[in-house]
Amino acid sequence: MDLQLTGKRALVTGAGRGIGKAVAQRLSEEGAQVALLARSRDQLDATAAALPGPSLVLPADTTDDAAVRAAVAAVADAWGGVDVLVNAAARPASSAPVPALADLDDDALRVEVETKVLGYLRCARAVAPHMVAAGWGRIVNVSGLNARATGNLVGTVRNVAVAAMTANLAEELGPHGVNVTVVHPGRTVTERTPADVATAPAATRIGRLVTADEFADVVAFLCSPRSVAVTGDAVAAGGGTPGVAVY
């Protein structure tokens, strides 16, 4: 299937490593021009060097609205607009023990909202005028399956908030040809995953963890004109959660 992404101008945040890096690679392989945003220039340079197509390196912190607006303006100046945004710049889910309510301080949630929820919102707000003017666009927000689980209050709240924001943006932007979707990864194999964990059986319906490349395949489809029927909804891409029926 031709995803019809050739020549599309994409901005991927969190593109220096992990899921963001894999998404940037896949979009480039599909023919998109890819602007890479993250805080570390060294990581972005490494990502850019591996891409088969045109790229821009944009070191920026999504907690800084002025920096986000400047980065989007740089893409628009270089390429004439922005067609696709993939928001993946977020702190990785912690494997540390979850604190009890009495030990949970405000900053534990505040930093997640500032980075993931508001960070995604800043990027969407900056690119939306370009997409609306063009009459077409795709915004994909990478969230997490903690949105559908309890046991980690901060993880659940931040990911549910991203899903709620996505639905609201989809309703506002949909009439202008802009689809907005949230994708929930589970635990995903990236370049930082130990080899024994990456190859071990896992509690998913496919019996193993999904890789970042496999997750990127799902995102690439949602970034494409082929995905017009999907907007405002949440797509789970974690290999399937046993014992759960989501409807």
Automatic annotation (TrEMBL):
Gene3D superfamilies: NAD(P)-binding Rossmann-like Domain. GO terms for biological process: fatty acid elongation. SUPFAM superfamilies: NAD(P)-binding Rossmann-fold domains. It holds the Pfam family adh_short. GO terms for molecular function: oxidoreductase activity, acting on the CH-OH group of donors, NAD or NADP as acceptor. Belongs to the short-chain dehydrogenases/reductases (SDR) family. This is NADP-dependent 3-hydroxy acid dehydrogenase YdfG. It comes from Klenkia marina.
